[in-house]
Amino acid sequence: MRSSGSVIRWFSIAALLTAVALSFVELVAYSRQRARFPQGLEVAGIQVGGLTPEEAGQRLVQVYGAPLELHYQESLFFVPPSAMGFALDLETMLASADLYRTEGPFWPGFWEFLWKRPGQSSTVPLKAEYSPTQLRAVLEDIAARYDQPGMPPQPIPGTPNFTGGVPGTVLNQPQAEERMASAMRSPSLRQINLPLNSGRISTPPLNTLQTMIQQILQVAGYDGLLDLYLLDLRNASELHMVTLGGEDLPREPDVAFSAASLAKIGVMVGVYRYLGEDLDPEAARWLEEMITLSGNDPADWLMERIDEARGPLLVTEALRELGLESTFLAGLYRKDAPVLRIFTTPANQRSDVNTRPDVYIQTTPTDIGSLLADIYRCTQGGGTLRVVFPEQFSPEVCGRMLDVLSRNKIGVLIEAGVPDGTRVAHKHGWTEESVGLGALSDAGVVFTPGGDYVLAVFLWKEGGMVWERDSRVLADISRATYNYFNLPAE
Length: 490
Description:
The chain is of the alpha+beta class. It has 15 helices and 19 strands.
């Protein structure tokens, strides 16, 4: 019996010592674990359970310091977040994480450890910052290296047509900035397909159209004088060409031409200047016939309405007030009308080229083009007409003038170069000489989807011109101009 009690006592002592030893081992293990972050703790989206603060910090730096993988179409490159000024606030995040490590009392925590009870999941959010300025600088550098400029439409040599342009590729920098800022703050989504836009197809410069027109003249075999004035009504850019036999001539002062029926645009302006906007039915009918039927008698009747003796001179005075230095009417249209005055202008004093302009009625492409532009701008409340004659020329009156010019339907010259249905507010004219046509001209405002413009074209050739050939030249110039403003799609 005594021997049995000793065994039991020794067994109890051994069991107790074993329990104490195991408890010590577990206590040491728990103490070591307590020196590390608890299981289930996540910092900035990264599991750090079981790691020391130093190890957790290293892991965060390793993950968030990894380069971003950028794809620009087929190109692949890597950019370190540090290039965008990205920096983790490790001190704040690890201090917050350390609270979860030390927040519970030691012995209750040890008890939970012994029973292998899992800890609660906890999260510490990312604390980091980057430099938007540095990020934008990186994106600008990428754009400078990888953006592809588009190719503008190109003229088809010897024709009035253009090829389609090719759009470029442009980095969408605002969207790219958002994606990269998001990727820098993500521990896993580090690949970015950079957002791209198709670049706008650029418009070729106006000198491209000038070259195209020169080629049209060469292909047509036209060796006479061309004087062309073009005004882009969207942005006021101009093209002025003066060429004779393929050789460029000085553009200033412009060349004087017989104005013929184009001067009736000036007569129309004079009618509203002197007779007012409320024309009586007879005057309104004459104005319509003067423009749409190119009637000379109605033009004379209207000028006589302005002043029976000095009507043409008063029209000229109004045009001079508008700044047209080389446009005048020195008499009526009828053949027996006297010359009321001999006009000397900058244009008709040129000695290098002489179109033998009519002493009665003269103009230049720049003068008549500028007048049409003023009428157009007046419809929008601006322009010289509104400044010089504010009481006589309202937008409504100027709209009426463009309307009547738009009813001048002839189907040739400028109209022949634009698609059916295109509004062309224009006046055409030509003179006749003993050997054929003298000066051939057309000037108008062309309204198009790609932008409105003023085009004034005058052709003249020593020894006369041929209608069938030379009217097509003017039509091809019109078509090339329309195509320039309405370039084909890709």
